[in-house]
């Protein structure tokens, strides 16, 4: 029996980041899952494009990039499967992108995997970073542990990161526009037990956004536990996306 093509896993970065955070994932688990990082316009691989600060426009733009990539891939392998992954700020975006892609291409993803994020109904109404000075925001970023210390020590890079974070928090304030989002494909939530921003119980609320059966996988660690060992996270993704092939 021929080995199936790896699922294309489109990954949305967390706040202040670009798709480069997923480069270590691309070789962490061989060819079992094909990791493809996707950037918003004006950032990373799309840095030459104008930035988009409207949530709906951002979702449509990112979904269009995924849809184009899928169309090109299906020209080569017609039964290729796909899924999405989003961490923290990227979780809501990835689910909305998955929904938009499914409608655009006429095929749903195998599953949407959301990690370390409050569902839209539980998002705080304001922006807790708005009152922070740039230095205070950098202290918060440093404490969260998701950014390399050498980047934070570089003045120009630190200033750039602060700008990206403020832009992303402005987008996050618009997540309430998808309070009623309901998708027809399954969701897997990846919850870290020691995450100080979102509890496993809160993560289970994502299930309300799908008419399909949803699941939760719990792991040890804090807010960025999914990035502690990419191979472990991708093995979880592999099991979730290939349950019909993997003996549990």
Report on this structure.
With 248 residues, this protein is an alpha/beta fold. The protein has one domain (7-123, 176-241): Rossmann fold. The chain has helices at 55-76, 89-105, 134-144, 149-153, 155-172, 200-203, 230-241; strands at residues 7-12, 33-37, 82-87, 112-115, 187-192, 215-219. It has a six-stranded parallel sheet with strand order 2-1-3-4-5-6, sandwiched between helices. Helix 1 (55-76) crosses helix 2. The longest helix has 22 residues, at 55-76. The radius of gyration is 17 Å and the shape is globular.
CATH-level-4 superfamily name: Alpha/Beta hydrolase fold, catalytic domain
What order do the SSEs take from the amino end to the carboxyl end, as H and E?
EEHEHEHHHEHEH
- Taken as a percent bin, the fraction of beta residues is 5-15%
In spatial order, strands of the major sheet run: 2-1-3-4-5-6
What do we call the CATH topology?
Rossmann fold
Structural class: alpha/beta
Number of extended strands = 6
Query: Mind telling me the C-alpha Rg?
Result: 17 Å
Give me the number of helical elements: 7
Family: Belongs to the thioesterase family.
Protein name: Thioesterase
Pfam families: Thioesterase
Short description:
With 248 residues, the protein is of the alpha/beta class.
């Amino acid at each position: 029996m021929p080995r199936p093509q790896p699922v294309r896993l489109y990954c949305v970065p967390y706040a202040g980041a670009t798709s480069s955070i997923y480069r270590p994932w691309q070789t962490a688990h061989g060819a079992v899952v094909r990791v493809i990082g996707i950037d918003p316009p004006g950032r990373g691989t799309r840095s030459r494009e104008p930035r988009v600060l409207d949530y709906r426009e951002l979702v449509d733009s990112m979904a269009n990039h995924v849809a184009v990539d899928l169309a090109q891939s299906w020209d080569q392998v017609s039964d290729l499967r796909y899924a999405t992954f989003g961490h923290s700020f990227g979780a809501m975006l990835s689910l909305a992108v998955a929904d938009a892609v499914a409608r655009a291409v006429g095929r749903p993803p195998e599953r949407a995997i959301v990690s370390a994020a409050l569902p839209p109904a539980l998002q705080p109404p304001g922006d807790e970073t708005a009152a922070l000075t740039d230095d205070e925001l950098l202290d918060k970023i440093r404490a969260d542990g998701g950014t390399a210390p050498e980047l934070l020590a570089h003045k120009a890079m630190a200033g750039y990161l602060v700008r990206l974070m403020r832009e992303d928090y402005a987008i996050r304030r618009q997540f309430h526009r998808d309070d009623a989002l309901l998708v027809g494909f399954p969701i897997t939530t990846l919850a870290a037990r020691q995450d100080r921003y979102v509890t496993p119980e809160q993560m289970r609320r994502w299930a309300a956004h799908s008419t399909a059966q949803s699941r939760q996988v719990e792991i040890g660690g804090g807010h960025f536990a999914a990035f502690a060992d990419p191979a472990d996270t991708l093995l979880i993704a592999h099991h979730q996306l290939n349950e019909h092939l993997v003996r549990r």
